[in-house]
Amino acid sequence: MYTAPLNPGLYVVSRWVPEKWVTHVAVLVRGSTYAQRLGRVEPELVVEFDEKGLHAAAPISSQGWEVVRRILDTDGALARIRESAKAPVRPYDLFVNNCEHFVSSVESGQRTSPQVVGFLTVCGALFLLLGTAYLLPKVAKA
User: How many domains, the chain?
Assistant: First the structure.
């Protein structure tokens, strides 16, 4: 869980969601100047994308958010959050439109999901391992 005091700015935050076995990520907007640029009055809010869509709310300490890193391109990130809020929101999809895709697009302008890449890499490795284990005895007999 993050602890005050954090300087005003934008931060990538995460928390473990045990019922889904995933790490959920969001953007923490800290400081009324930054929140006002998003049309909000709260001095601190978490902007997140999940199954309910794109939303922002004041963080609750019991939610267990941990600061991952500070977003350096504050102006660009704020602009990308505003663009995301105005654009039609694509439905949440675990593999192609999840919270990591949203946060990476806000932070860098590029949509990526390390959890999905990791999952697909493990699946590919298991597929190769099982395929090799299946084919190796057949090749040895030939």
Answer: 1
**Under DSSP, is residue 94 helix (H, G, I), strand (E, B) or coil?**
coil
Separation of alpha carbons 9 and 28, rounded Å: 8
Altogether, the residues listed in the chain come to a count of: 142
pLDDT over 70, % of the chain: 75
Residue 128 lies in a domain: no
Range of the domain at 48: 9-111
Q: How far apart are CA 106 and CA 76, in angstroms?
A: 8
Q: Is residue 141 part of a domain?
A: no
Residue 28's closest CA among 108, 123, 103, 113?
Answer: 103
Tokens of 105: 């697009």
Lowest mean pLDDT: which of 1-5, 20-24, 61-65?
1-5
